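Reading a protein record of the kind used here takes only a little practice. The record below shows the convention in full.

——
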Amino acid sequence: MTVGWCFDNSYSRLPDHFRENIKPVPVQNPELILLNSDLAKELNLNFSNLNNKEISELFSGNLLPKGSESIAQAYAGHQFGHFTMLGDGRAVLIGEHLSNKNRFDIQLKGSGKTAFSRNGDGRAALEPMLREYIISEAMHNLGVPTTRSLAVVKTGEKVIRESP
């Protein structure tokens, strides 16, 4: 899968207490819902030689790009009124893509439990992911620096919150 990834993995070189080496939890039936072609162009990535199935396998975490090193990161902060150890409970960083002398973290969100998931399942429902995509693109187009979604993939699995 040659799309132009150029990974550096500086976070993977941090001491173990800052990260967990982890692979995304495979999904049974990934389906590409959207690919952000504008962002792909900005990152000098070209997905035109891949079909939707291959793209969905990539962004579901079933296949990882060459050069990626998947980790979940530890961090700390204030939550529930006190200082606590936090971390990527449902995000897996697959690497830092280098493009135009800039560094972009490429993460898979909702890709399964990590050491930082607490009691969660590490998954993400489709509706919140679409909402996050719409809001982050609106903020970006308003000139507000923000995270952006390169793709949204449906897993074909039920995500249980209060109900399926």
